[in-house]
């Protein structure tokens, strides 16, 4: 028997029964059993949500002061903190992440929303010294209806990343969670209702990307798409968005270089390299999945990595002893296993993992896997696996590792370890990535802009920079002179 059944979806401030009779079945990835069902909306509900968002922008939401918008966001953040324990358990059941990870993500999501609550009344235009007899200034106005199309790997984090800046800037937003992980989206909708946002400001439409996502991308009354996911999907969205030249921001994954020089603090680098490669069962776009190690320390480092990988506890998400849980879906597990086989076919040397953990007969589990002596041009090193698979690559010189680090279609995150401060800055300036970290890895924070080069995306999340993507700039010029401006038609 299913433990969670959602017969209605949240549209325009109300819980609505979709016109169709289809349901979305959510599978617990640790057991492979369906544990939740959600009513599946279609195009009719997309139209309803967009119309409700438009009405809110014309009506009550437009009359809210920026400070009042911030107060509502702060209330939502506090409601998330209040329900964090329940939300974390639901997320772990739906997504497969260990409970300690989902609890941390929910706490951080509340912090993200709190940050943008404080930013709401600090979104300013500028006065421009255009000429002495005119007042020229800019206004930052809401972009309009935002559709946020989200991934399955970190759902609650992504809700916060999109809701925060969109609502702080005065937009209305439609959340489309991934079909694999929609349960917490329905719970967040309840908290949005409890927080008191006006009708239509937020709607939540679970459903398949090819149906609900595609309808939002093509809808003529949607002004912006904020998408996190695979780059080929972003390309489809961009084509669909061309109809009304929607604004688009994309965060689309990576194949991040993690570089260890021989003069680094090797003990710290080893621990961080492990975490950066295997956290979230490898289901993260910012993994340090290509580990470049300078040759004098390469053999020792690979032995240590292999030994530690074997000690990672793979298990049930609700077990507090678990380090990493199952993949979120059978499809993702199959993809990871395909890449493990491909790595062996390509000649990389398997030094840890590569199979299913012992004693776990059900669930989408795989061992943390390490390949050594990987060719940087191989599919294993170039394509995003989205699983706990680490590629180790030796290098000799700074010039060599820079060339290999940048030799990829992605450019989201990079990390490097060295005690040479000049080298640290020199390499950071030359790596083609949106976030470069030195003697740490991936410090993602609500204050820090986050996004990618190349196929890793367009635009930035987080920080105050993200507000630029959720506002339109309007220039206003007021003539203050009492003297009529000269006209070529004088005398007519």
From TrEMBL:
Q: Where is the active site?
A: 251
- Identify a single GO molecular function assigned to this protein: aldehyde dehydrogenase [NAD(P)+] activity
Residue span(s) of domain Aldehyde dehydrogenase? 15-476
Which InterPro entries does the annotation name?
A: Ald_DH/histidinol_DH (IPR016161), Ald_DH_C (IPR016163), Ald_DH_CS_GLU (IPR029510), Ald_DH_N (IPR016162), Aldehyde_DH_dom (IPR015590)
Superkingdom of origin = Bacteria
Write the record's keywords in alphabetical order, separated by commas: Oxidoreductase
Q: Which PROSITE patterns match?
A: ALDEHYDE_DEHYDR_GLU
What protein family does this chain belong to?
A: Belongs to the aldehyde dehydrogenase family.
Question: What is this protein identified as?
Answer: Aldehyde dehydrogenase
């Amino acid at each position: 028997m299913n433990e969670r059944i959602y017969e209605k979806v949240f549209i325009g401030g109300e819980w609505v029964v979709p016109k169709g009779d289809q349901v979305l079945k959510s599978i617990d990835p640790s057991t492979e059993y369906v544990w939740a069902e959600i009513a599946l909306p279609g195009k009719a509900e997309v139209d309803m949500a967009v119309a409700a968002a438009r009405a809110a922008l014309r009506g009550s939401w437009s009359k809210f002061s920026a400070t009042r918008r911030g107060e509502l966001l702060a209330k939502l953040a506090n409601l998330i903190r209040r329900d964090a324990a329940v939300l974390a358990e639901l997320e772990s059941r739906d997504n497969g992440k260990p409970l300690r990870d989902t609890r941390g993500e929910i706490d951080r999501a509340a912090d993200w929303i709190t940050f943008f609550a404080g930013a709401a009344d600090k979104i300013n235009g500028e006065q421009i010294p255009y000429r002495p007899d005119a007042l020229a200034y800019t206004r930052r106005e809401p972009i309009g209806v935002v559709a946020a199309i989200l991934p399955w790997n970190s759902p609650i984090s992504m809700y916060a990343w999109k809701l925060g800046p969109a609502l702080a800037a005065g937009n209305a937003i439609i959340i489309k969670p991934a079909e694999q992980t929609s349960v917490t989206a329905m719970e967040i909708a309840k908290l949005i209702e409890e927080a008191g946002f006006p009708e239509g400001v937020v709607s939540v439409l679970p459903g398949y990307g090819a149906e609900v996502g595609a309808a939002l991308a093509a809808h003529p009354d949607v002004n912006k798409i904020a998408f996190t996911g695979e780059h080929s999907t972003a390309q489809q969205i961009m084509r669909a968005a061309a109809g009304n030249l929607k604004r688009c921001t994309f965060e689309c994954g990576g194949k991040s270089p993690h570089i260890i020089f021989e003069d680094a603090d090797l003990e710290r680098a080893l621990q961080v390299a492990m975490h950066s490669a295997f956290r979230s069962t490898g289901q993260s776009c910012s993994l340090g999945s290509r580990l470049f190690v300078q040759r004098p320390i390469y053999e020792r480092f690979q032995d240590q990595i292999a030994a530690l990988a074997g000690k990672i506890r793979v298990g049930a998400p609700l077990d507090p002893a678990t380090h990493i849980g199952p993949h979120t879906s059978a499809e993702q597990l199959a993809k990871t296993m395909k890449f493990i086989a491909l790595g062996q076919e390509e000649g990389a040397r398997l030094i840890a993992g590569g199979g299913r953990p012992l004693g776990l007969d059900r669930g989408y589990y795989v061992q943390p896997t390490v390949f050594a002596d990987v060719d940087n041009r191989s599919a294993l090193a170039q394509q995003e696996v989205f699983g706990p698979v680490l590629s180790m690559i030796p290098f000799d010189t700074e010039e060599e590792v820079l060339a290999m680090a940048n030799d990829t279609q992605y450019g989201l995150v990079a990390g490097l370890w060295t005690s040479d401060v000049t080298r640290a800055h020199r390499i950071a300036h030359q790596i083609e990535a949106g976030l470069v970290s030195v003697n740490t890895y991936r410090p993602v924070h609500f204050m820090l802009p986050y996004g990618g080069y190349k196929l890793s995306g367009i635009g930035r999340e987080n920080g105050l920079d993200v507000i630029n993507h959720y506002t339109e700039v309007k220039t206003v010029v007021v003539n203050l002179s009492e003297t009529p401006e000269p006209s070529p038609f004088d005398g007519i």
